[in-house]
Amino acid sequence: MSKSIVIVGAGFAGVWSALGAARVLDVNGKSADVEVTLVSPRPELVIRPRLYEPSPHEMTAPLMPMLDAVGVKFLGAEVERIDTTARQVIARTVAGRNINLVYDRLLLTSGSILNRPPVPGLAEYAFASDQLPDAVELEEHLVGLRTLPDTPERNTVVVVGGGFTGLEVATELPEKLRRILGTDAAFRVVVVERADDIGPDLGPSPRPLIIEALKQMGIEFQVGSGVVAIDADGVQTANGQRIDAQTVIWTGGLVASGLTSQVSSQLDRLGRAEVTDDLRVIGTDHVFAAGDVARALTDDQGHYSLMSCQHAIIMGRFGGHNVAADLLGVPTLPYRQPFYATCLDLGEWGAVYTEGWDRQIVLTHDEGKERKRMINTQWIYPPAANRADALAAGDPLASF
Asked: pTM, whole model, 2 decimals?
């Protein structure tokens, strides 16, 4: 009787997990004995790091040719519940049919969602660029601004959050607004960050360059007081300031998929499951996790994975390798990813590329932008849809 591996989620971690699992089965001559099923609503990878760019509806990559090449089955469904005692995944297909998947090993790669705290007006009035529908809705709203009366409120955009995503969204806006409203439009972009520094999680090293870029593009930023209320006409900050704007974009960080609470009782403050070195969910013997749902140690210096495609891709390879290896009874591998880099897009100014957890600056301006283009258009896309290349891409010991 054949065995079954179920992978929940087709984001970066899920896609590369599927390749990692298929590779282990191929190497061990067990491809015909184990069925690998990738479960996600659509057979496409949303290139989430690019959703701040123009034309977000184009930021997807088809998965079926690659999955067919490596023998991974795809199920178009939304997972609603995981029963680790019965080893079942309960899902609803895109056609509305309920289905139960029995598994021998489970790999959770269901990703993360935008943190949406109970800020008054957030759900009703704020836009986002976190998921594909969010980004498309925002793009349509921005394009629609040209049909509204030319007022300061129409021409003002408030970006709530001055972290990585907020900065990339904000610095893309000047070019977008000129294209939509006209080259002579007097628009205003304001970034509101509740921390005392802009780019608080990016550290002090790139901050002078970030500030230089913002000032050069005329983007305002306010720190030390977050947004406490949003309405149809703008925002209110904690220090009592009112900013009138017909566009408010929320970039308030990420939290793990709620499915983590169904496989683990040991979650961090972001809702991520605590995992062992081989990415096994602590407290289970048959459930693994990778990507944004896992709090995983990346190196021997005490650094943990971040919610980024950089960590998700490599962690996915290890997760896929280990879930298949464990099922076959061959040794698993400890996940390690000591190399860490950050490439922050700063719009027309360029980009800042850093290496190391202390973020030492390596490339800036046009050179940084070229590195960002390489990352966004080549390095984070799935491999070619031929079996050899696809299986090679699942090797956890290969370079990024």
From this structure: 0.96
